[in-house]
Amino acid sequence: MHFHIITLFPEMFDSYLSESILARAIKEKKIKVSFYNPRKFVTGKYKKVWPDGNVSLQADDRPYGGGPGMVMRAEPVIKAVERAIKTITNYELRIKNKAKAKIIFFSPSGKKFDTKYAKDSVKKYTDIIMISGRYEGVDSRVKEVSKKLVGAKNFEEISVGDYVLTGGELPAMILVDSISRQVKGVLNKFESLEEERISSSEVYTRPEILEYKGKKYRVPKVLLSGHQKNIENWKKGI
After folding, report:
1. Looking at the structure, do residues 111 and 177 belong to the same domain, yes or no?
2. Do 87 and 143 share a domain, yes or no?
3. Bond into 76 cis (ω within 30)
4. Are residues 31 and 90 in the same domain?
5. 78-92: per-residue pLDDT in tens?
6. Would you give the end-to-end CA distance of the chain in angstroms?
7. Pair (135, 212) in one structural domain
8. Pairing of strands 101-112, 71-72
9. pLDDT single digits (tens) 123-151
10. What is the pTM (predicted TM-score) of this model?
11. What's the angle, vertex CA 110, arms to CA 123 and CA 67, rounded to 5?
């Protein structure tokens, strides 16, 4: 699975992708994550070179109709999406001849993301392009063009919950994490997929007796019994 993330702040992903399961999955080439910063596609009057040599790349502008905040401009975001699609076409499609891309646009009003969605994504797609908005959102024309680039059936607005976030970077991390878990070989054992087990959410490890402020907290006796059937029944809540 190859994740292509459109974001103004790719550095936000550094620590999350460089640790634990995802870091190993990237190292072992089970998954790949690429970033496309819309600022790099800014041209014209929105690209300014100041007398001191600094370059200003403006990827946002004031919203039509008024209102607070700024809106991410359509052109640089669309160009970033096009670059991602070109990457897929030039390399993976040529090698595998079966690459299939989907574009995900994060929106509080989108379809609710869940584990089933993650499983289906792994079965249907080799590449997922995620558009992470910022400020007051992304110019809606990005959605119109994206549907034409990959086909309406391969474009979807997704929400990770009934709340509003500052940007789409956290939702992108959530999708990368959840979808990657469904990729074969990312987790060491199939049993590690908690969603495949009907079990108690309570887990215990050493020591057998935990002493805290004069009180003893014990591991349930059934887990110490060695009776596998009883243990499995306990995990299932029987």
Report:
1. yes
2. yes
3. no
4. yes
5. 999 999 999 998 866
6. 38
7. no
8. unpaired
9. 999 999 999 999 889 999 999 999 999 99
10. 0.87
11. 145
Alpha-carbon Rg for the chain, nearest whole angstrom, is 23
Query: What range does the domain containing 54 cover?
Result: 2-191
pLDDT of 56: 87
User: Residue 158 has which token pair?
Assistant: 């997704």
Residues 95 and 212 occupy one common structural domain? no
Q: Which two tokens stand for residue 60?
A: 């946002």
- The domain total for the chain is 2
Token pair 């805290």 is found at 212
Q: Which residues share a beta bridge with 33?
A: 3
Our CA angle for 141, 171, 88, nearest 5°, is: 65
CB-side exposure of 51: number of CA atoms within 13 Å?
Answer: 0
Instruction: Check if the beta carbon of residue 124 is closer than 8 Å to that of residue 96.
Output: no
User: Do residue 124 and residue 225 come from a single domain?
Assistant: no
Measure Cα distances from 221 to 24, 119, 210, 225, 232 in Å: 36, 36, 14, 6, 13
How many whole angstroms separate alpha carbon 67 and alpha carbon 45? 23
